[in-house]
Structures are given as structure tokens and as C-alpha cells.
User: What shape does this take?
Amino acid sequence: MSRFKAHTVLPGFNLALGFTVLYLSLIVLIPLSSLFFKTAELGFGGFWDVVTSDRVVASLRVTFVTSFIAAGINAFFGIIVAWVLIRYTFPGKRIIDALVDLPFALPTAVAGITLATIYAPNGLIGQYFAAHDIKIAYTPIGIVVALTFIGLPFVVRTVQPVLVDVEAEVEEAAASLGAGRWDVFRRIIFPAIFPAVLAGFAMALARAIGEYGSVIFIAGNMPYISEIAPLLIVAKLEQYDYAGATAIAIAMLVISFALLLFINGLQWWSSRKGGR
Amino acid sequence: MKLSKLNAALIASALTLALAGNSYAAEIKLLNVSYDPTRELYQEYNTAFAKYWKAKTGDDVTVSQSHGGSGKQARSIIDGLDADVATLALAADIDALATKGNLIPANWQTKLKNNSSPYTSTIVLLVRKGNPKSIKDWDDLAKPGVAVITPNPKTSGGARWNYLAAWGYALDKNKGDQAKAQAFVGKLFANVPVLDSGARGSTVTFSERGIGDVLITWENEAYLVKKEFGDDKFDVVFPSQSILAEPPVAVVDKNVDKHGTRAVAQAYLEYLYTPEGQEIAAKNFYRPTDAKIAKKYEKRFPKLKLITIDKVFGGWTKTQKDHFADGGIFDQIYTKK
Assistant: This one.
């Protein structure tokens, strides 16, 4: 214990660590471990049968693929939004800045119903796509739209503070040394914000994977096509099949954990490489 | 784009629930946990019952409502939602309160008249005005080019009635051939472009999003849509036969004993059977069981050939296992493409 203590000049290590462990146990560890206990009723064979059945595998694929696409879209546009909000001043900037957080505040079911209304073939935006035979609501594209909406703030909010720290003088220096605009972005800005983008991407991805409320209203919920894994969990609960439901949940948790671990590793690697 | 009245009703009932907590002393509170399409019915009924109870005993009674998918509501009660009465879509869900939750005795259905179902309903077809695809009967739903809207039977009690009504029709038509019935229902579900998780979700998909040619739904929900959107938008089609739906009601014994509300909870359900209660049910498009009131509203509720779950499918427990359990017949309909 004393060896750990030596690292810090701040008092209260024991108390703070105690709090951390208690807090995480109450909020995260105990609920999650009860998931594993419930699933244990099935035995490993039963668990494997549940998570490898065609329907479950198809829904996991839908969930992870759409979440990945949505997080990717958010990463790309999140950088642009953060850039605009940090580097330019224009009237109404504060309002736009506040708008970014709204998807967090809205109940997800409301978001889902609203998005479905707008993107349905007779909706405000959906009608123009419908004219070209493109369906958004009630297809996997609809799922991506909903997941992009709920994940919007993450990348913006992680990139913003980092972008503030990248001094405009450095960019100007690069430019005066003959670097083109693309070079400045690629060699100066992007390496600095990349870890933050990854962090935001990871959060948006994690949020999207677990999303239920907004998606079911816009997904169409067709088996094998637009049925998300959380819906199958609900369907199993409906039959009082608690163990089967937690089995799918655990499969999602394990995959998510592996993905997040990988992204964190990437983040660590890139921030080390950037020398920050 | 107009604000959906059905969505507004959803929000309104959530508000009622919030406000109900804010009441003064010497007042009895009841929680009625119900399923999706009964919002409007119980809104009216609760006011009437409060008046009746005030006149009879002098006590104020406030009834709060909770609505949602029938199965989900049953599970909430089992998991501890403090319902005094449960008014759900099918007997199987109240059975679960006895078998899984141990909250009520197994013979709950014998405690009130008509299998504890004060009102009944059936499944009908709702089509767009003028019936452009000329849908007359169940057969037309399995034809190519017809888009059918119905919720997912795995997550919606109402959807199970829809599915079983179609199945019963196919069974009668093919002289009891189960394989042919399955093929028919499979063809019907191949025409479903959106599987919502609940009955109200399907109603919104059909009426507001403009998706699908026909909505399979509760009779009361079909009339409600006509009332909300105007008679010039939709037509109700009565198929040649359908299914008798008996949405049952029960006092949740363990909870009323805890709250000391048994007498008022019991009276609340019994009042449903009185002419006043029956009148409110009929006004909200539920078929009354009282012969006199039924006679009065016979124009609204045409006589149909109605099959029953018990006779054709051998009761809810068996139906649930054969058709809707994992790997059951419904899952076989959706095989990998």
C-alpha cells in the first residue's frame, strides 16, 4: 500500500479509492455480475445455442454494423462541427453549441418517433427519397439515422477541448513554411485530435450498441433484416426467458468490451506516437 | 405535419400518472395497470367510477393508469409495480401473475362474471378509404402486392390475437389442415413490411406514416382511428370470421391487501359490469357483455362468426407454447432468407 501512496502528494487516497470501488460495485459490477449468474442457469452449451442461433447472430450483425457506421459518420461530421465551433465566430454560435447536446436530453423514444415521422415515405424528408425509390424509415438505413442522432454529441465534445489547445500559431507557421491546407490538417491538426476522435468514436459506438428506445420505432423490426439484438432480448423477456435474454446481453457485452479494448489500445498507441 | 392525437394521448396519460401523486389526504388511490388500446376507455371510466364511489361512500378515489404492451405490463407487476387491478389483453398474461408472480390465486378467472371479462372485442381489418385494394376477407391479405400491418406476436398481445384469427380462418377453410394453415399465415406475414413491437405502434405506422394497405387490429382500435382521423380516411372491413377476444380483469390480491384497498378495487372491477360501465365500454368500442346494452349498440358491433382460443387452440398455455415460444410455429415462419 505504501508503495502506491508514495506516488502522490494528495491526501485521501484510501478514502477516494474506497469510494471508487464501492461506487463502481453498486452501479456497474454487481448488476453486471448478476447478468452472468442468471445466464449460468443455462450452462455453457445452452448459452452457446442461444447466441449462435441464426436469428440472434443476424440481429447482432445488424446491431454492430449499424452502430459502427453511425459512429463513423459521427466521427467525420463531429470533427467538422467541432472545428466550426472552435475556429470561427459567427452569430448564433452559442445556440448551435447548445444544440449539439440536445440528443442527450431528449427521451430516446421521442427521438425515434420523431425521426420515423420525418423519414417515413410520407414524411418531411422521407418523401424526397421515396420519390427516388429510397426507403429510410423501416430499413437498416433508418437504424443508422437513429443511432447517428443519439451519438452526435460524443465526438464533438471530445474533440472540442483538444482543438482549443492546438494553437493557431502552429498552423500559421506551417503555412508560412509552405505547407498546403491539406498538409496542415494531415500533419498538424489530425495527429493532435486523433486520440480524442477515437475516444468520441468509442463512446458513440458503445451508446449505439445498447440503444433500444429510438431504434424500434424506425427500424421496421423485420427478422434477419432490421431486427436489433436488444429487441430480441425484449422478446425473450416477454416469454419469461430471463436466462436467454441475459445470454444475448452477455454476448453483446463481450463483443463490445473487446471492441472498446481495441479502440483504447489504438488510442494509447496513437497518443504515444504523437508524443503527447 | 400535425401532432399525433394518439401520441398526445400517450403523453397525457403519463402526465395523469405524475399528477395523481400530488393529491391531498383522506383520498383513496388505485393503480390500474392495463394494456395499450384501453387508454381512452379507462380515462372515461375512471371519472365515472370516482363519481359513483363518492356518491356511495363519500370517499374520493383517484385511479392512476399505466399502459403498455400487455406482456410487458404483466412482467412489471411481477417485478413489483404496485398495481391494485390488472386489466390486460389476454388471460395468459394475468395467468403469469399467478404462476410466475404468486400474486393472485390460480382460479382468478372464476372470481368475476364471463371468465372475468367485462367486455369483449374481436379482430377486424382497417383499410384506406374506398378500399382501393378491395380487401374483403383474410384471403386478400395473403395476395401478392398487398402490404399488411400487424405488430410482432412475440412482443405484442394484440398481435397474437391477429395471428390466431388468421390461423383460425385458414384452418376452417382447409378443413383443419394445420400445414395449409401455416402456409397461409406464412404468406400473410411475407406481406408485412414493418413489425412494430406493440399494437399502438402499428396503428401509428398505418394511419400516420401511410404505410400498408390494411391494418389488422382490435375492433376498438379500428373505430378509434376512424374517430381520430375522420370517417373520410379509413374504412372498417369485417372479415367473414374472426376471433373472440376476452380481455380479462383481476384484483391483484397481494397488493390490495398491502394497500388496504381490496373493497374499492373489487368495486372498481364490478362496476365495469353495471349498465353504466357497459355503456362506457360500448362507447369506447368494446363489445358489451350485458345483453341489454349489447342490443342497443348492435349496429356498431355486427354479429360475426367468432372462434375461441379454448375450442380451436386448446387454451392460452398450449397456444403460447405451440405458436409463440422460441422455435415455435411463428419463428418457423421467419426463416433465414
In short: The domain at 121-245+304-333 of chain B is CATH 3.40.190.10 (D-Maltodextrin-Binding Protein; domain 2). DSSP finds 16 helices and eleven strands in chain B. Chain B touches chain A at residues 1, 4, 7, 69, 71-72, 75, 96, 100, 152, 154-155, 192-197, 201, 204, 208-211, 320, 324-326, 331, 334-337 (CB under 8 Å). The longest helix of chain B spans residues 39-57.
